[in-house]
Every structure is written in C-alpha cells, then in structure tokens.
Fold this protein.
Amino acid sequence: MEIKFERFHLQSDLRSPLKGFEMISVPTEVRIDPLTKRRSRIITWGLPSQGKFDFSKMAEEPKECFFCPDNVLQKTPQFLKEIVPEGRICIGRAVGFPNLNPVGSYGSVVVLCPEHFLHLDQFTPEIYEEGLSVAIEIIQRTMAFDPDTRYWQISQNFLLPGGSTILHPHLQVIGDPIPTNEMEWLLNASSSYTQRNGTLYWKDLTQIEKGLGKRYITPIKNVHWFVSFAPIGFNEVCGSVEGHGSITTLGKEEIASLAKGIVSTLKYYYEKDLNSFNFSITSISGETHYQLLIRIISRTPLQPYYLNDYTSFEVLQSELTANIIPEELCREIRPYFP
Ligand SMILES: [Zn+2]
C-alpha cells in the first residue's frame, strides 16, 4: 500500500499586541491528500462563537414558500411523463420534482419535510431515509430513460451561507453524462491507485485509518465514517459505503446508515453553534475503482455581520482551509455517533 500522510509545518513569528509585544509563534499545517494530492491548510486559530442565531423571525415567513405543504403539490414542476408518469415522487413526507432552475442535464429537488425550518438538532434519520429514497428513485428512473447519465450528486445546501436562498430543508439531485471536476479527480486518482497497487484505495484507506484510530469515527453497518487527513472544508466528516459506487444499489440498511451519520454530524454542528452546512454524495455507476462517498462540511454560521469562509485562498488559489485539527474533530464528534 502506498497511502502516505504527508504534511508541512509552517510557522509565523510576530510580536503580539495581545502579549505586550512579546514574540509569539503561530503554526499552520499544510496537508496533502493521500489520493488526490490536493493541499489543505489547517489553521490553528478560530474566531469565537457568537452564540446561537435567533431564527424565529426568518422562520415565520413560510407563506410564499413553494416547498411548504400548501404549495408543494400545486406549484412545483413535474417530471416528463416518459420518466415519472405520476409527475412527482413522494416517499413518506419527502417530495421530489424537477428543479425549475437546473444547472445540468437532470436537476431535481427533494423537499425533505413539511416543516419550513428545522434547527440542526431537529433533523432525524427518518427525514434523510425518506429524502435519500426519493433521490434514489429519481436517479433510477432517469437512468432507465437515459442510461448515459452515470454521474450524480445528491447534495444539501442549508441556509444562505451554504448557498441556498430557500430556508425550507431540501436536497439537490443532479445528474449528467459527464463528471464534475471533483468526480474526475477522484476517478482518475482511484483508478491510478488500483493500477499501481492492485487494490481499492478506499478499502486500504479504511484499513489504515481504523488501525491508526485517530481519524476513524465509527462504522455504521457498511458505511465507514471518518475525518479526512486533508479536509477540504470546515469540520469535514466523510462516509464511504463499502461495496458500492452508485447510490442506486443501496439497500434500506445502507440508506439508514447514511442518514444516521448525517444526523449525528448535524447534532455536533448544532452544539458548536454552527447553523449552515453543505453535503454532497458523489454517486458514479460502472466504475469499479470508486467507492460511494459523502462529504459533509459546516459553513460559517448565519449571524449578524456574516463572515464568508471562502476567501481568495479558496476561490483564487484553490487551497482549501480547515479550522480544526482533524484528529481533534474526530475525538470531539465520536460521542455523537451511534
Ligand atoms: Zn416552506
């Protein structure tokens, strides 16, 4: 196995006004992802929490919301008859329909629940089980109609800092015949790893991380939950589903395991006074070197004088930052998982 955990220690020395202008040293770590070789910068300082944001006023305004129960079956788009003859897909309380503003070949929305707003500690595993089941049904039916659409993202953008204008909890399901940048990087790197080593990168990584015990959170059935060595966002938690590359082949137990991990992560974020997040499940059919992956990251919370967490470093230098040491995050988040 050739998995290496490479890192550079950087240090900045300065005379601090907070310490009577004595010299202080502030460390930064640059870590290289063992698969993609992408660099991440782990900063060791953070701004203090401003406490929990009061959402009562924002959450009071659901009247115009197309995703609320009075509107969702009246005012949202319907699928083409050839794909979903009944127009929309409903499982439990979740409702799936095409996105009126798609960004690719097939864009859908899954409204997760009738509630217009949920705090991060109010999401339940059942909500995600139903939402992911609708997403899977959308993907299966679309692929039956157009088998070339092999590349899928099932994502959630929660609140304005996460890029969502709509407060009402929902997923995005996006399918294309071509991969995104991230998909191509993962596929190329996973495939080269297998060619060089004769093994599956994800299997080797799980084995190593389990042995080290510093970043491996827990298995839930055959989903391995861990913190990346080189995270690509704040408080990043990952889950890799053993034996699957596409979400379409998951059974009930595997969907439930994904749902539990998402909810556990959100509970931790809530305790940390965070309120906005993104996750993305990358699902690719017909690739034996790839294993289904979910990444969940927190965004800087919605608060007065909101601070965006994507600076010139991320958007112009493509160097992603994390604000907690991954091994610390793993230690802190473990108790939140079943
Ligand atoms: Zn609503």
